[in-house]
Design a protein that fits this description.
This protein is of the alpha/beta class. The chain is built from 11 helices and 12 strands. The strands form 2 sheets. The protein has a 7-stranded mixed sheet with strand order 9-10-8-7-6-11-12. The longest helix is centred in the middle third of the chain and has 23 residues. It is globular. The termini are far apart.
């Protein structure tokens, strides 16, 4: 394994899967590892490895080539292919790996752009996005390898269809909940428990319905709160700025952070107070959704 090229990509979305697939097209014998931005920042092991390629993630330190488009991620690789204006990290990865003009790679990148800009139009992008969301770690490795060998025709594989079907149910439940939430300029939601929907998709749906700013707080892990920030394109809000203040990152229109505290309520109010202060608000209103799904209007 040590003699093979090592590639690191984001585990969270199809853009990361696309970067991993591009790496495997370039280096068929290479080994892909998936991680989250938090893993990269906190793992001594990840930061001790010499990576040939890193895609859609913060720079862990010892990197030959990195492709990224997150404005909050600092460069450190020997060769950086970075632009915060790129619609997806895969757009930079195809250049970084010398695959421009490779038809199979180009089609993978096109799907990554659709999914990462929340502007899904093709059936291939819809299925690949859902398959990514429905996959566990090992299944994501297999999905990246399938894409590297078959390109977007991988959507015709039964394995991919089964992964996608898992997420389509989650997607439907998310859409049902979104319809019940009143929309205003700022929509802030605090969940008492993780109900297993797609919180990023919920943020996108609320922005589409007219919310300029969304913040969704969900308990995850031990004593942790995952914050999903969203801003409607064209609005004055900057999700990345707020997420970065909490140790997270992302883009102007979509960003995230993870905050831990004991008890967990301390993390919730730390996030809410920061947002209230940074937005210059006298009062921050939010919707509290309890474990039974009941909604309650609250303010800070």
């Amino acid at each position: 394994m040590l003699k093979k090229e090592l590639g690191l990509a984001d585990i969270g979305d199809f853009d990361g899967i696309a970067c991993a697939a591009l790496f495997k097209i370039k280096y068929p014998r290479g080994v892909v590892v998936f991680a989250s931005p938090r893993d990269v920042n906190n793992s001594i092991l990840i930061r001790s490895v010499r990576w040939v390629f890193v895609g859609d993630l913060p720079c862990p330190g010892k990197v030959k080539i990195r492709a990224d488009h997150h404005e909050t991620n600092k460069p450190c690789a020997q060769m950086e292919f970075y632009s915060p204006d790129a619609p997806a990290a895969a757009v930079m990865a195809i250049k970084a790996l010398g695959l421009t003009g490779n038809l199979k790679a180009e089609k993978i990148v096109a799907c990554a752009v659709e999914t990462d800009t929340a502007n899904i139009k093709s059936e291939e992008a819809r299925i690949l996005n859902a398959a990514t969301k429905g996959a566990n770690y090992r299944e994501k490795i297999k999905l990246a390898e399938l894409l590297a060998t078959k390109g977007i025709q991988a959507v015709n594989e039964e394995f991919v269809a089964e992964l996608a079907s898992k997420y389509f149910d989650v997607e439907h439940r998310t859409e049902m909940l979104a319809e019940k939430i009143p929309v205003s300029e700022r929509v802030v939601i605090v969940f008492e428990k993780n109900i297993g929907i797609s919180y990023r998709y919920l943020s996108i749906l609320l922005n589409r319905r007219g919310a300029d700013f969304t913040l969704i707080l969900v308990p995850k892990g031990f004593f942790g709160i995952r914050a999903y920030f969203g801003a409607r394109p064209g609005s004055s809000y900057n999700s990345a700025f707020l997420a970065k203040a909490l140790g997270g990152g992302g883009h102007q229109y979509a960003a995230g952070a993870y905050v831990k505290a004991v008890p967990r309520s301390k993390a919730i109010f730390k996030i809410l107070r920061l947002v209230k202060s940074e937005l210059g608000l006298d009062m921050l209103s939010y919707i509290y959704i309890d474990k039974d799904g009941e909604h309650e209007s609250r303010s800070l």
